[in-house]
């Protein structure tokens, strides 16, 4: 279940996230507790397509297992929403229309293919904090993104590093002079 | 500069980081300094970019010059780049899997080098005198070092090459301590040591 970060409005479908919240916000936060509660009540639609073992409704979106995922709507310009994911979590975003295999039974049922989960996740071994899944679709590691530098890995496995802007030395970091490792 | 002297009086050793883009001669310079001060080299050098992919550290070396004594830990940083493309390594006879592994390690090295900005007390920023100094890496990293109030010496390396142009480096980064050297031949290394001593004394 995704909630609008501004007004708390619950979005139950990708289309709703993609179009943005009625309040004008385009940022939705995945609420694991609500999703778990909904799943416990047998509401598979609320749990989302990504929940293992669930049978989601068409167009729904979700995160399997771990929370901390954020989906950002794009204001309805036709491209899919971006996914933002916490470390070691997975999050599924339906691929762009050109990447879809029309007529695939699992997609007709609104289910994201298993192979997609393998690609759309971060592990502790990943050094990048942004992945380009396909054109216009990004996966972001929310926990790591706040730390400089930002590292992006594109579809061709090429790394791009955004060097930090000029900044002062953090006050709480002490130099390691004279320390033995 | 009084506060700086105070810092170094209190500390046992100064952490001196060697920064710069890949293949500007950081490890060659580190090896030269380590051999001069500790009689042993720091690490391997290679024409293939990103040969140094982890921070190399040589501890407790002593620089003695004209009555000045400086104990320091030398940190040879991985080359900092804004793009690491495994395809750049394929031309050196490295297969795709090894090249992708090298690219991953190199990117990790860039991250480690940037994070190490918070751990150094002084920096040598090495620039290849045969290349254009107006790069994003040079400008950004020197800016970050400056913003952290870390003493910095800009080192124009590879002056032994015929197409070296140190003047444009001076013009690109005016106001910094500047030394032109050849880490390969050892030319002007004594001047570099003297500049370090003056900067940190």
What report would you give on this structure?
The complex is a heterodimer of chains A (181) and B (201). Chain A has 181 residues and is an alpha+beta fold. Chain A has one domain. Helices cover 18% and strands 19% of the residues of chain A. Chain A has a nine-stranded mixed β-sheet. In chain A, strand 6 (130-134) and strand 7 form a beta hairpin. Chain A is extended and about 45 Å long. Chain A starts with a strand and ends in a 19-residue tail after the last strand. Chain B has 201 residues and is α/β, with parallel strands linked by helices. Chain B has one domain (2-200): Rossmann fold (3-Layer(aba) Sandwich). Helices cover 38% and strands 22% of the residues of chain B. Chain B contains seven helices and seven strands. Chain B has a six-stranded mixed β-sheet, sandwiched between helices. In chain B, helix 6 (167-172) links the parallel strand 6 and strand 7 (177-180). Chain B is globular, with a radius of gyration of 16 Å. The mean pLDDT of chain B is 90. Classes of the chains: A alpha+beta (181), B alpha/beta (201). Chains A and B meet through strand 9 of A and strand 4, helix 4 and helix 5 of B.
Summarize, please.
The complex is a heterodimer of chains A (181) and B (201). Chain A has helices at 14-19, 32-40, 44-47, 105-108, 114-119, 142-145; strands spanning 2-4, 10-11, 27-30, 70-72, 82-85, 130-134, 137-141, 150-153, 159-162.
H/E series of chain A: EEHEHHEEHHEEHEE
> Total strand count of chain A, please?
9
Most extensive interface, residues per chain?
A: A-B, 26 and 42 residues
Any idea what the radius of gyration of chain B is?
Answer: 16 Å
Order of strands, widest sheet of chain A: 2-1-3-4-5-7-6-8-9
Question: Could you estimate the helical fraction of the residues of chain A in percent?
Answer: 10-25%
The CATH architecture of chain B can be given as 3-Layer(aba) Sandwich
Largest sheet report of chain A = 9 strands, mixed
